[in-house]
Write a structure and sequence with these properties.
With about 110 residues, this protein is mainly alpha-helical. The protein has a single domain, classed as 5'-nuclease (Rossmann fold, 3-Layer(aba) Sandwich), CATH 3.40.50.1010. It has 5 helices and 2 strands. Strands 1-2 form a two-stranded parallel ribbon. The longest helix is centred in the middle third of the chain and has 16 residues. The chain is globular.
Length: about 110
């Protein structure tokens, strides 16, 4: 099964002292055949988030660079299948899903 790991999952997966780290890595025990894909958009979001966490002092100095280097190496080794897709189609589909479900499906970060 191929899945898209959002930025919060990647951060929790890669930062061992994140409060969600255990849950993030347990996904591999629950779904042993899972493949978490890596996209150019994740590269931007995850790497920027790691840098922001370091800037804010949440992770120690130099940790962002270390984790970025590790992720790049893992992608090169094939741990995270690199997927390119048609961005126009992705944006169009996202807009259609938002129009259809945006008023009825709660967004995790906005749930009350």
């Amino acid at each position: 099964m191929m899945v898209y790991g959002d930025t919060s999952w990647w951060i929790a997966c890669k930062i061992a002292d994140d409060s969600n780290h255990r849950a993030a890595v347990q996904i591999f025990d629950i779904f042993p055949d899972i493949q978490v894909i890596w996209t150019p958009w994740q590269r931007v979001e995850v790497f920027n988030s790691l840098r922001q966490l370091e800037r804010a002092g949440i992770v120690i100095a130099g940790k962002a660079r270390e984790l970025i280097r590790l992720l790049e190496q893992e992608v090169r080794l094939g741990y995270w299948p690199h997927i390119e897709f048609d961005w126009q189609d992705a944006v169009r589909t996202t807009c259609e899903l938002s129009a259809e479900h945006g008023l009825s499906v709660p967004i995790r970060g906005m749930d009350l």
